[in-house]
Amino acid sequence: MGQLLCCVQVDQSTVAIKERFGKFEAILEPGCHCIPWFIGSRIAGNLSLRLQQLDVRCETKTKDNVFVNVVASIQYRALAGNASDAFYKLSNTRGQIQAYVFDVIRASVPKLTLDNAFEQKNDIAKIVEDELEKAMSAYGYEIVQTLITDIEPDEHVKRAMNEINAAARLRLATTEKAEAEKIIQIKRAEGEAEAKYLSGLGIARQRQAIVDGLRDSVLGFSINVPGTSAKDVMDMVLVTQYFDTMKEIGASAKSSAVFIPHGPGAVRDVASQIRDGLLQSSQLQ
């Protein structure tokens, strides 16, 4: 019915190409338009002004001879002011854009190593966008944005890269663990040294206290019991301590055995040894 009345409707975000006897005449904006078909006017086609996206997957290789698949997303749209160029000059817009993307990516990526390609994917996208903008502007198209959405190497290459990364992390973890064990051993050695030092101080103080106690006992007994010599008092004290020690060993619940010579002569020998040690200590002081 619209064609019989010479009326056509152009949708929003779309322009129509009007021809007269096969020659371009005008660009029709969205709305209702009168097309007198009986005098040779007609609509040659419609052109969308919406933003469109084209995903291009391109296989290439890097400078270190690793084959990768680079996925680029191209966002483009036709310019309303150049709608005639966009409609007439290109028969396959998406194919033309794809060819330019292939050409730019295969000229840029081989200059980079695989690691650099991952690091500089924004630079690659910028190069592709600039080249497309120069090429497609002559055909009435605007390149809005170009994104490199993925750089995918071969599965064997990815596995090797993961193994290298895992080995590096394992080496670092081993180094840190060894360093921690070193610190633990150093601290343990320092603690043992400090403990031995303090134990030595304790033993020295214990022995000094024993010597002082025996000396005081001998002096006190000699004063309170006339007629006894210091040797008699020392022998009695030593024998008393000897029997106390034997009593403690016998009362112990542990199963360890201690073999020592026993008898009057043995007691005399023990007393002589202790007395000599005390005399030597007194001389050193």
From TrEMBL:
<dbReference type="InterPro" id="IPR036013">
    <property type="entry name" value="Band_7/SPFH_dom_sf"/>
</dbReference>
<keyword id="KW-0449">Lipoprotein</keyword>
<dbReference type="Pfam" id="PF01145">
    <property type="entry name" value="Band_7"/>
</dbReference>
<protein>
    <submittedName>
        <fullName>Hypersensitive-induced response protein 1</fullName>
    </submittedName>
</protein>
<feature type="domain" description="Band 7">
    <location>
        <begin position="5"/>
        <end position="165"/>
    </location>
</feature>
<dbReference type="InterPro" id="IPR001107">
    <property type="entry name" value="Band_7"/>
</dbReference>
<dbReference type="InterPro" id="IPR050710">
    <property type="entry name" value="Band7/mec-2_domain"/>
</dbReference>
